[in-house]
Automatic annotation (TrEMBL):
PANTHER family, per database record: BNACNNG10540D PROTEIN (PTHR31672)
Name the UniProt record assigns to this protein: F-box domain-containing protein
Listed InterPro entries: F-box-like_dom_sf, F-box_dom, Gal_Oxase/kelch_b-propeller, Kelch-typ_b-propeller, SCF_F-box_component
Superkingdom of this protein's organism: Eukaryota
Annotated source species: Ceratodon purpureus
UniProt-listed SMART domains: FBOX
Pfam family name, one: F-box
Domain F-box: 5-51
Coiled-coil region: none
SUPFAM superfamilies per UniProt: F-box domain, Galactose oxidase, central domain
């Protein structure tokens, strides 16, 4: 498609608006650098409402898996089962930053190293609007999760942060409306700050996976209303099992991989009885690995992504929790250890 700014500058606005409404999102992201009219339209709720009714991929109900490697930016679409190219200006993920969470068209990023000991600034990015918000500094984030209100008008960021000056950590919650952090717990269990720890939020409960020693430490939970920590034991897992914890809608999923049986298992937590139920098993050979057995799992909406990397490509297996169907994305060549992958729900929003 022609990207010459002179061509679009001379079009009447009403004609241009009709064209923009029907553009696929891959082309729409490129237009932001050449069409000033688009920048104003992206903050117009009437335009966003019309755009969501078109056939553009931005209105699809399923999330993408975004993969970034340097200036290269691609997204895998569930409906097309194909990788589409995005403009590098759509979202820049610096090599020193890590994508901590994403939801409803927003992405949460933060530096991955402590640098010289200064508190890190978590930032929330809205790629379609091309704007971001730097959150007030609170420490170095070890893990974070983003929860967007069902109305779409506000969000919360939950973060486990290590306070450099105290040598301890706390669980925080950021509110977009007040632009401020609240300390939920100033003395979390020390296990939640082990290397590789992650957090997920589901139904008002924060779930913490205690790093690479999850089988021994169990899953730690924090009830936001009661402000109480509790532990879910994982006695059924051997000590050498690899685990990941992921929230998917109202579900809490545990992904395990044990060297003894050669299977990757996805378990779902039954909240009523606090027990785990196996819902899917995949043979190890379906999830190619070259890192000694670690796994990379992400979820958004009803899709569950299992990502593995080799020195040559990235492999993705996708499990649809509604249809119980497994789909495999075409291998993406050229994946390196410095690349980043994360799920992203492609919706237009004025929120940041």
């Amino acid at each position: 498609m022609e990207m010459d700014p002179l061509l679009w500058r001379n079009l009447p606005e009403h004609v241009l608006d009709v064209i923009l409404i029907h553009l696929p999102v891959a082309a729409l992201t490129r237009f932001r650098s050449v069409c000033k009219r688009l920048n104003s339209l992206l903050s117009c709720r009437s335009f966003l409402a019309k755009y969501s009714l078109t056939r553009s991929p931005v209105s699809f109900s399923q999330p993408w898996l975004v993969h970034t490697q340097g200036a290269d930016l691609k997204a895998w679409s569930f409906e097309r089962n194909n990788w589409i190219e995005l403009s590098s200006s759509w979202m820049r993920v610096p090599w020193f930053a890590s994508v901590l969470a994403s939801a409803s068209g927003l992405v949460v990023m933060a530096p991955v190293s402590k640098g010289v000991g200064r508190p890190a600034r978590i930032r929330v990015l809205n790629p379609f609007m091309g704007i971001e918000r730097l959150l007030p500094p609170i420490g170095h984030p070890a893990a974070a999760q983003l929860v967007v209100d069902s109305s779409g008008g506000r969000y919360h960021v939950y973060a486990l942060c290590e306070a450099v000056e105290r040598g301890k950590g706390s669980l925080y919650r950021f509110a977009s409306q007040s632009n401020s952090w609240e300390v939920l717990s100033s003395e979390p269990p020390w296990q939640v700050f082990l290397p590789g720890a992650t957090i997920d939020v589901c139904n008002g409960v924060v779930y913490c996976r205690a790093g690479f020693r999850t089988p021994q430490s169990g899953i730690w939970t924090f009830d936001v209303d009661l402000r109480i920590w509790s532990r879910i034991p994982l006695a059924f897992l051997p000590s050498d099992a690899r685990c990941q914890l992921v929230s998917c809608g109202n579900r809490v999923m545990l992904i395990t991989r044990m060297n003894c049986d050669g299977f990757l298992r996805i378990l779902q937590l039954e909240h009523a009885c606090m027990e785990w139920m196996t819902i899917l098993e995949l043979p190890n050979e379906m999830i190619t690995q070259d890192d000694g057995g670690s796994i990379s799992c992400m979820a958004q909406g009803d899709l569950f992504f299992i990502v593995s990397r080799t020195m040559r490509d990235i492999r993705v297996a996708v499990f649809d929790l509604v249809t119980q169907r497994v789909q495999y994305a075409p291998p993406l060549a050229g994946a390196l250890t410095t690349s980043k992958s994360f799920p992203f729900y492609p919706c237009l929003s004025t929120l940041v």
